[in-house]
Q: What sequence folds into this?
């Protein structure tokens, strides 16, 4: 009963099969192979973005931080939510890769930036002068770190604010599939049609072993990116094995089916929380449940072997109700979900 | 009537005289000259710290950022007030020099960090793991960015919290003289006796042209620092001209007399603010006045030619009362102070 | 007939099987899984180094550059051969990760550093002062970029020179298996017993998809390394899939058998070169052949579909004899080797 | 008798007078002062470059390294002479500021790059791909580190090679005055008319205390430079005191007169070397003499109290003839020059 994270779970059989299929004799290295070409094309197609530049890396931190360095100078200001993964969970990777950019963090309900806070912050940035640095990038996460999902219209509103200030918009899509599946829109509607300039399209949390795609919708934004990826040690020599994972997920739409499964499991937990007298800390719109549950329920779940995190950290141990984060993956066993749901619902 | 900043004013005649005196034929470069030796010794003596390592640089940003890089790895967490100069006014220099350290900013009344907020933040940091980075440094500014002054006991309390967490304490002393003169303590009581590990001892805002001393009270903290200073382009070949400035200020205690003059001028303005129906936004303990003054008073001051900043920025124009920052230097003319005070007092 | 590089070839079936086996439900992420623990232990055992710290990354560039950053400050001097991979083929990754370290390159026959050139260079470095930076690291590659192999005694002589100068020795072992198999020694004799302090133990060129181990023989050298790896985006969330690859290669000694196969294939080509009137440009001691072959032979090889690089680059096209680099992998088909050998031998 | 370096000597009285004159009450900080405006204009005029962007910093290392970072990405290749100051004497500052750029060093007689070596190196760079990085900048020093001077035509030939390869040309002019005075051309002929894109115009070695100007002839090259300078801690708050130094040197042509004096003194020493049976190691075209002098002459010079460096370092002690570097400044006393010349001439 592991609900600690979606990355605690495994790889989809189709991914393993794709790796085996890609293991087909000699191919040129460093991305000059047919698997990479097919995978890049598949992602462009999934995004309806025939001009986009697509590149693969193996971790979400690498994807995000390389985009930050690509789009921000060392003296740049990168605007993000105060709970953004790039701020809280990447050990300073954006600062390291960009050589000093400053993350300007903003509050926002349900883990979301809002135009009402972003616009004034960009105005402050525009007047920050040499002291404060140069506004360079706005970054949002979708699905967010609180399991909520920006609808395309919300993305568009933030993109408008960013573009008015002359800076591009980045979407950290470590759980991009969960967001798109939840919103019921197309991948294009969620991204470039709404004004997203750069997308990190996550595979790892959605059935890959370790694979993420970095997408620049405007090729001009990608100039020199291959050098950055190389200099950071993120170009695989046998890149076919990176590309094959994304190819398996994207071709045929597997990524959306897996994400929808994970979302549905979280929904089941969310309903159980409410039924059991708990309170959702944020709307459950993707594959994570943030909830305050009765301490007694928490104790029973733990006793039953359920693994999940107290939120935001262990210091919450002992509180009643207990604030918790429970994350579902496409392959979280249905039986586990049912069992935890029963406990949460008070049965 | 310039109250925009203490760095809008000039250099003390003694500093100019010291430069002329140092211009005495050939000396070895890069700090291997007798002026540098004397200046380092003078600062060690002023601090009663015979073992301290003292080095000179030309700007406060360089001093602070080099200390940050010296004491924090790229993956370090540096704790500071949310209004700290290193956060708001150095264009990301600490992140740049350290290669990615993260400034963890904390709120605090009157521009001061308090142990009650620092301790929990250090606890969060201790549990932040690889995601959040490694707690590396606590940095305070004295006098603060709000013109207030930490008393030695307050410094000691913060040092205790830092040291319990295993991290050193840095004091940004761009206005160190103003702080010491205000507190009426010795420079040693304000620093190493209270637990400060590294001090940026500012000269520029206190009568120098451009000179700051970096002081490590424990020589072990200074290992390799000379290389960092050199690699950052902050080693002067004719270093005697940097050292001579600090020597002129420190030898004979000129620095404290100048700081006391500046403080007294600010005190006069503060009293006028109160007399004139304005409100001090923070206690005036050094050479800066933060106040909300009647819009009409503000208009009259402007009309009279007074230069100062609205606070925190121009967006405050038009407010009533008007939030303003007025800074005095040792050489702000007494007549200017009297004239502005009269306006502030409503005469 | 692909002899372009060993990374043009695939992954060993045992590696694929290990990935499938590791895909076994939920495990904790970021290395806190049993596969990682087993793989780290297997490498410590293969190296007879029970105290060593072992960490996994996905590329050789990441492995090398992270070691450089770990062992050199930004102002460090890293001594290496002028043809070292870290100098010629990593796009400045060591400088990027270390934040400015300088690679001091030295000539040397057959791609090898020699104590006779290293010692004077370290002496120059010791006197380089602030201008030249601080000697920080010596780095060698084994097997070298010219396909030669340092014997343990040669490694020991370089380690002695480095240690006399107070700096550690790094071995870039992208082809570590090829070196050990060639030298006929133990992995321990090739490394820590000869004085190596840090090893990059390559898997990718020897049957893995993308997996390298970084090994610090003295745990003190590894302090903070996990943060560096994380900040660089090189910590996999599902790390079991990285570790499983190395585990498959190391457990049971597969890595040495595969390397020996590749070496033997190169030996066959080398003999053919000589038989066919070509000249070896360096002794063939691992899995790469550097040779000057008759232009006519080169033309026939190309016509037969053989893929390999002119050396050092395409500008050599048209020379007679033609300087070429031919690399064998464990899975280069025996038929391809025989066919190319026949051409090289002039049959 | 100090001939160790031109930075062992002092500041010109006009510089001191200019500092005193600039110490005139309040001015706005950070370059928004009239002295800075006048100094920038004076340099534009001296260079006949009305569109050029001029900025001041306090050290030559800062000037050079900031230009490198401005014109090269982290993955850039910067081509320079193997004895270039940026390679040998800046502790890795270009790598540090640029975040990883690689200095590609080339040999060349008399400390000069030649088109015949630069062009092939740029060709190699153009084919270096991701492994080798992106050609970004060519950097030359004038006067060179060997005391020689590129004539405008030589600069133009190198600029042509650089521009053909699509990269700009930087001139490290720490001794720019010595070069221009020696060549007898205009500052414009030596720079932008010959194709120089960025110039570091040195003041420190030519009568300033610590002042250098960075000049970008094409304003497009300067975009964002002010942020870089600020983030590196190289923006003075009281910038008038930096600008005043350059103003004093440039207005009225003092810089060229001082440089010519220093050059003439070196010429006197050079003639004495030859007369006394020594051999010049490079043509003496500026203010430094590199010579092999009889050991006995060396001993007599030392005994007489002459200070200068053995070349390239102390390891040359004891050689006969003794390789030495002797540098003259504008203020090296004529008597010292005469006395050393007499010894060198064997009198």
A:
């Amino acid at each position: 009963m592991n609900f600690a994270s979606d990355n605690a779970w495994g790889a989809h059989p189709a991914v393993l099969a794709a790796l085996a299929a890609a293991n087909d004799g000699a191919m040129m290295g460093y991305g000059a192979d047919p698997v990479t070409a097919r995978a890049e094309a598949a992602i462009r197609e999934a995004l309806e973005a025939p001009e986009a530049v697509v590149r693969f890396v193996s971790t979400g931190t690498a994807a995000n931080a390389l985009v930050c360095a690509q789009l921000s100078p060392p003296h740049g200001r990168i605007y993000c939510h105060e709970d953004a993964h790039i701020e809280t969970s990447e050990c300073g990777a954006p600062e390291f890769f960009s050589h000093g950019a400053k993350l300007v963090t903003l509050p926002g309900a349900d883990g979301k930036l809002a135009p009402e806070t972003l616009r004034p912050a960009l105005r402050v940035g525009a007047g920050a002068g040499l002291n404060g640095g140069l506004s360079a990038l706005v970054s949002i996460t979708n699905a967010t770190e609180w399991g909520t999902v920006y609808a395309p219209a919300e993305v568009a509103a933030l993109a408008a604010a960013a573009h008015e200030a002359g800076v591009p918009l980045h979407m950290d899509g470590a759980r991009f599939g969960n967001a798109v599946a939840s919103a019921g829109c197309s991948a294009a509607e969620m991204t470039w049609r709404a004004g997203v300039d750069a997308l990190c399209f996550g595979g790892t949390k959605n059935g890959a072993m370790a694979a993420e795609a970095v997408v620049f919708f405007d090729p001009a934004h990608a100039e020199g990116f291959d050098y950055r990826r190389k200099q950071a040690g993120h170009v695989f020599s046998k890149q076919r094995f990176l590309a094959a994972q994304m190819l398996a997920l994207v071709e045929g739409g597997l990524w959306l089916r897996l994400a929808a499964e994970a979302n549905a499991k979280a929904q089941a937990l969310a309903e159980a929380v409410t039924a059991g007298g708990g309170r959702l800390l944020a709307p459950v719109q993707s594959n994570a449940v943030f909830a305050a549950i009765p301490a007694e329920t928490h104790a029973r779940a733990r006793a039953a072997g359920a693994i999940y995190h107290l939120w935001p950290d262990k210091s919450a141990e002992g509180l009643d109700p207990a604030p918790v984060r429970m994350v579902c993956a496409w392959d979280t066993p249905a039986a586990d979900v049912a069992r935890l749901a029963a406990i949460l619902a008070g049965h």
Notes: The CA atoms of residues 119 and 161 of chain D lie 6 Å apart. The domain at 256-344 of chain D is CATH 3.90.1150.10 (Aspartate Aminotransferase, domain 1).
